């Protein structure tokens, strides 16, 4: 009993000594996690395969139950996981609790990265390249008929068309009311519907315009056109891996690995990757492998 107590006290003492955590980070293992939706699973596999190919690290994929930002952020701060893909808009609003948005997406990225480093000792690695933000989508035929390219274009003819979205979109601060006010939308009518019903509704003609996420694979399936948010109403949600700083201090080769895929995943590419998993029933691991092969990483 006395020996166990001595070991416990020594361990507790060492844990607060400078450099002890740094030494722990040198065990050559990195724990990757992700959120519980298709895009995040794909990105986790890209992270895993990139690190396995470009470093000598041992990679563990750990799924945390629930897996939202409110769960993964404490997990990474506490060292339960080491790296996961996060979105700038989510970090700014949900983690940093900032109400005033920064419209320039790159400025937002650097500000988020600065705050994470100062507050949590976490590092934002290079951006993947895509922005999975809210957007508005219409059928390709309607976009061609009305020459729709931007939200402002849609506003000019909105009185002829029906808008559909899930109930939450009509309650959000960055939702329908303020969006309509910003662009002057005056739709013929609006319909609230479950998320799962939006795409069938626009396909059948029940609605003409829906809100969507810009990299949703269903956009590809239904041949929908996303319009440009030309007044930058919606926050940007650029994605990048977030990692514990002590890990990259111990293994700087991680930064060099991620520089190789910086900016390589466009909105269109991410939409296609999501489509392959959601609609073609491919495994995220295989989709990630094919992507990394396509950019000559593997």
Word description of this protein:
With 298 residues, this protein is of the alpha/beta class. It folds into 2 domains: 17-131 and 237-294, 3-Layer(aba) Sandwich (D-Maltodextrin-Binding Protein, domain 2); 134-226, Osmoprotection protein (prox), domain 2 (D-Maltodextrin-Binding Protein, domain 2). The chain is built from 15 helices and 10 strands. It has helices at residues 2-15, 20-24, 38-54, 69-77, 88-95, 105-120, 140-146, 151-157, 176-183, 195-204, 217-221, 245-250, 253-259, 267-278, 284-294, and strands at 29-32, 58-61, 83-87, 122-124, 134-139, 162-165, 189-192, 209-213, 224-226, 239-244. The strands form 3 sheets. A 5-stranded mixed β-sheet has the order 7-6-8-5-9. Strands 3-10-4 form a 3-stranded antiparallel β-sheet, with helices on both faces. It has a two-stranded parallel sheet with strand order 1-2. The longest helix has 17 residues, at 38-54. Residues 1-25 have low confidence and may be disordered.
SSE-based structural type: alpha/beta
Helix amount: 40-55%
The helix/strand series, from N terminus to C terminus, equals: HHEHEHEHHEEHHEHEHEHEEHHHH
| CATH homologous superfamily designation of the largest domain | Periplasmic binding protein-like II
CATH architecture of the largest domain: 3-Layer(aba) Sandwich
Assign an overall shape. Answer: globular
Number of helices: 15
Enumerate the strands of the largest sheet in spatial order, edge to edge or round the barrel: 7-6-8-5-9
Strand content: 5-15%
Query: Gap between N and C termini, in Å?
Result: 52 Å
Rounded to the nearest angstrom, the radius of gyration is: 22 Å
Low-confidence stretches: 1-25
Output the CATH class name of the largest domain: Alpha Beta
CATH topology of the largest domain: D-Maltodextrin-Binding Protein, domain 2
DSSP strand tally: 10
Overall structural domain count:
2
Q: Largest sheet, if any?
A: 5 strands, mixed
Mean pLDDT: 91
């Amino acid at each position: 009993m006395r020996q166990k107590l001595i070991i416990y006290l020594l361990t507790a003492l060492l844990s607060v000594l400078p450099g002890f955590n740094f030494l722990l980070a040198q065990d050559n293992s990195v724990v990757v996690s992700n959120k519980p939706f298709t895009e995040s699973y794909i990105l986790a596999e890209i992270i895993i395969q990139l690190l396995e190919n470009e470093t000598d690290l041992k990679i563990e994929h750990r799924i945390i139950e629930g897996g939202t930002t409110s769960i993964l952020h404490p997990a990474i701060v506490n060292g339960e996981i080491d790296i996961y893909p996060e979105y700038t808009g989510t970090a700014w609003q949900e983690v940093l609790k900032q109400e005033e948005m920064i419209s320039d997406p790159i400025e937002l990225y650097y500000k988020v990265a600065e705050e994470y480093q100062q507050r949590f000792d976490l590092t934002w690695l290079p951006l993947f390249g895509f922005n999975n933000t809210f957007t508005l989508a219409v059928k390709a035929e309607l976009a061609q008929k009305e020459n729709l390219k931007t939200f402002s274009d849609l506003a000019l003819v909105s009185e002829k068309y029906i808008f559909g979205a899930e109930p939450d979109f009509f309650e959000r601060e960055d939702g329908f009311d303020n969006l309509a006010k910003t662009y002057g939308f005056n739709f013929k009518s609006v319909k609230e519907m479950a998320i799962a019903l939006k795409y069938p509704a626009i396909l059948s003609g029940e609605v003409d315009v829906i809100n969507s996420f810009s990299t949703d694979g269903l956009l590809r399936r239904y041949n929908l056109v996303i319009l440009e948010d030309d007044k930058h109403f919606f926050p940007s949600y650029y994605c990048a891996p977030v990692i514990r700083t002590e890990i990259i201090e111990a293994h700087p080769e991680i930064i060099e690995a991620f520089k190789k895929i910086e900016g390589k995943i466009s909105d269109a590419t991410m939409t296609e990757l999501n489509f392959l998993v959601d609609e073609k029933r491919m495994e995220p691991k295989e989709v990630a492998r094919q992507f990394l092969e396509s950019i000559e990483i593997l």
